[in-house]
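input
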Amino acid sequence: MLDKEGIAKRIAKEIKDGYYVNLGIGIPTLVANYIPDEVDVILQSENGLLGMGLFPFEGEEDPDTINAGKQTITRLPGSAVFDSALSFGMIRAKKVNLTILGAMEVSENGDIANWKIPGKMVKGMGGAMDLVASAENIIVAMQHVNKAGESKLLPNCTLPLTGVNCVKKIVTELAVLDVLPQGGFRLVERAPGVTVEEIKKATAGKLIIDGEVPEMVI
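output
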């Protein structure tokens, strides 16, 4: 079973050379620390930054340099800072190759719910809806089950949707899964020490298993 760092490490393997990548709040922010040195990517933050670097070490934080989740970040040499209007123009023009988001629920047809639990106060959706509507490729980093042990990979989302038919891949503490165009979660890899049966029990949506499922290497 993977911890949050392990999920981030596995997702970093999906990032290709030359990509423009948007990292969401939570586990996705950790991905920046595991991108291989030989892979040249540009990280984008929707509050208006191209060229986001690693998280700063303790004591080196600059409170004026933050990401969309108000976490302190670093900037790489040559980075560009601009207003959010230009940033969302970039997103809506499909200039972002990959978006990595957290989620509370994902359905078997690729719907995502990641912004609101009814009855709980939230500040707003932020840039999530623009990102899922515009990105060429969306990977979700999430826990497979909630605190009550109930699956978060469902036939249909029960929470308010952020986007529909948009998620392409999911990485959880248990597995890597592709969301197929015709619907269903195809099991691609299982986390170290996790069995296929455990993944079956944790997945409420349609799970598709094609032959032997390899153990992931991170």
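quick obs: The longest strand covers residues 75-81.
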